[in-house]
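Sequence only, no structure available. Ideas?
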Amino acid sequence: MNPFELPGFIDLQVNGFGGVDFSNPNLKSRDFVETCYKLRNVGTAAFLPTLITSPIQVYERNLPLMADCMERHGLNALGFHLEGPFVSPEQGARGVHNPSWMSKPDIALFDRLQDLARGKIRMLTIAAEMPGAEELARHAVSRGTAVSLGHQLATEQEITLLVNAGARSLTHFGNGIPLHIHRHQNPLWAGLASEKLCAMLITDGHHLPEPFVEVVLRVKGVDNIVVVSDSSPLAGLKPGSYTWMEKEVVLEESGYLHEAQGPYLAASSFTMLQCMNHLASYGLLDAQELVKIGFHNPLRLIGATLPLSDGIVVRFDRTRAVFTVSKP
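Reply:
I predicted one. Tokens follow.
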């Protein structure tokens, strides 16, 4: 593949876009299909619709609804990413996830969700310290699901157990963690030190500072980095105040999206194209390395194949160091 041209980026964490929420109990098939096309038009070649921790009724309704759309319309959705419900209920670690909808790791529940999704759960985020996490990880991997660790307060030993059980990545590494943690015994150092864990990073400039991104790149290496947008349903909307997941959130002019009553981020308002361009602006990586972490690595992580080209192309302008979308 030409390092300066690709069919678009692969985004493993998309909660919604343009006002459409994949975890909304009233999600409509038409809106899901249209959102897939909208994402394609802004440079996302393929993605994983992500459901965050939700009531069981939402999973029962939305997973088969979206799976049916994928099968009937040949969309650029590669399957699902379930971010929960098997994550930490602790303040700071849980982020915007509602603890009343969480569950301890449960193989039977995972199988039920996988069946609802028609076998299309490609990634599962769990907290390594939760009782039963190791057993669930082994089972999920055996069913073809990539296990990622996030929204957790796990120790080095707990993370090692999950790595041995097949976990291979860290969900939005550097986020989904309290503002104040132990200086040495924390999931950041343990995750960084694990050679087998790929770090997924939200490079929108709001979730992570540039020095943190640079350190992770140096330690993990380009082969073990994946950029995700973690875009919320508010991505693509105008700045203002909104309600998402029963919380009041504010979208600033800068794209900074946060809880109205607290310091916590509420996912991202950026697309994958915007995240990749912000990362490119640091000048840390060349075009070939950027394409690897925004296209090849995410496909490899979930064991997916190259999506079919539809004529839309993302090109890297070496003079300006930015990616742009060209449509047929």
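The longest strand covers residues 44-52.
Hope that gets you unstuck.
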